[in-house]
Amino acid sequence: MGNNHEQEESLLNHSHSSRMGGLRTIPFIIVNEACERIASYGLQPNMIIYITTFYHMEAAAASVLLGLWSAVSNGLAILGAFISDSYLGRFRAVAIGTISSLLGMSVLWLTTVFPQLRPLPCSQYQHGCGGTTVSQFAVILFSFGLMSIGAGFVRPCSIALGADQLENKENPDNERLMDTYFNWFYASVGISIFLGVTVIVYIQDNLGWQIGFGVPALLMVLSVSVLLIGSPLYIKAKPKGSMFTGLFQVAVAAYRKRNIDVQLNYNDDCYYKAPESKLPEPSTDFRWLNRACIIQDPHIELKPDGKVSDPWSLCCVENVELMKCFLRVLPMCSTCLMLLVTFSPPLLIYQLLSMDRHILPHFEIPAGSFGMITLISLTIWIAFYDRALVPLLARFTGKLTGLSPVPRMGAGLALGIVAAALSAITETIRRNKAIDAGFEDDPNAVINMSCMWLAPQLVLTGMAEALNVVGQIEFIYTLFPKTMSSFAAAIYTFGLALSSLMGSVLVSVVDSVTSAGGNTSWLATNINRGHLDYYNWLLTFLGVINFLYFLAICWFTEHHHGGRSSFSPEEEEEQSEDRHLHGASL
Question: For the whole prediction, is pTM greater than 0.90?
Fold first, then answer.
């Protein structure tokens, strides 16, 4: 028994002599990530209420600001992963990110403690509300910026830091151990989001902003403390370079060799290939990129040992093909941006505040927690599809996954259109009831209409996200090799950043156009006078246009490269099981 225990410790902690890494480090990493998620997701739902109430901003302007905050946070996740892989290493990146989030939430909490950091209440002005000063606005932006930096470093690096602790090729059960870790990690993320949008939001609604913002700050103190306590036990892998660097090198090398005639027939020896490469030559599509791997002068471009002298002037065939894969997936991934915009309706919380949210005589659902319906719908649909529909569909399609990724993406887009149309119809009914009750000029009034009227559109949104997002990630896996599976998450994160930016631009344009000439904006803070239903119909129309664009991209993809990867059939076969596992996890 003693020998078996020692062998198990050896497998988990890499060697008998090593005291670094292993399962004992995982609780520190998961608690660090969980606290960050609870804190950050708990702040988001009610933030628009805080900004409009205490900073005297219109709802549309506040929605634009929060959309830009989301875009920066997701965009910095790509940058954070790059800096971590190339320069800092994962532990330092997570540590910097956690401390940055702590500072950002502390600054946000201070705005609730010191009145000087925010404008005076409107009741203290004799003639309307005063504006926010530059310094006051800079403080809130500074807190948002620190939290964005924190999220950008923590979220892409935390899960990889945990994987570093368990990576042990000598352990025959390492793959199963890693799968268990990923499942527990994603489960902790889901539980954390649930606690954030329920418990933290409830505290904000019932105990006030000081406690409601103070609890997330305390959670970040715990997050930093737990991470640093476990620091002596972590395996701190050195940065080895980012996968993004190779893509940039291909673009630069192809531009530097732009005078090469790629129409000429080059033999295999003219292309630089990595050791043990299975690709004899680059593919013919995006041929202009092939210049990057053509050897012009081996005496200058290659070292005596056969390695590249300057990777910014000569790249291997594999990196060129990875760049081509990236260009192939971009058009299809771009079809999801409009759907992601519809997932974040700008003034949903104002609708909920104007409706009856009681589910028991003495308990009402916090308006900021109502989005949990989408998460629950997404989770149930993924489980139902995987366990019930996939075996049934597999009999008809002959595919282990039931439907291929592209039809699932299309089904998600279609459900998104239905959800947007349903939200427009529901808002029309809500607005008419408010006006009929005489509340046109009273946006704080609660009408006799249950908030559960909004549940169907949120359920459809969850189903649309489950179909489209998982389908999108699996589509990316079909084009990239197994070694680049993490690139799918990076592309999706980049899509979230772009969609948040698109949503902010759309809200800003609609607000400016519809309020011109002294008219009431569609997205007025008083939604009883505005026309949020018109905005939802606009989203529906844009969703239809986007679906037609999706069909055009499908036709183009099928007729030009058939949606296939340019990598070897053997490597594609190796990926198939990995894609299934990742698709189920995501």
Answer: no
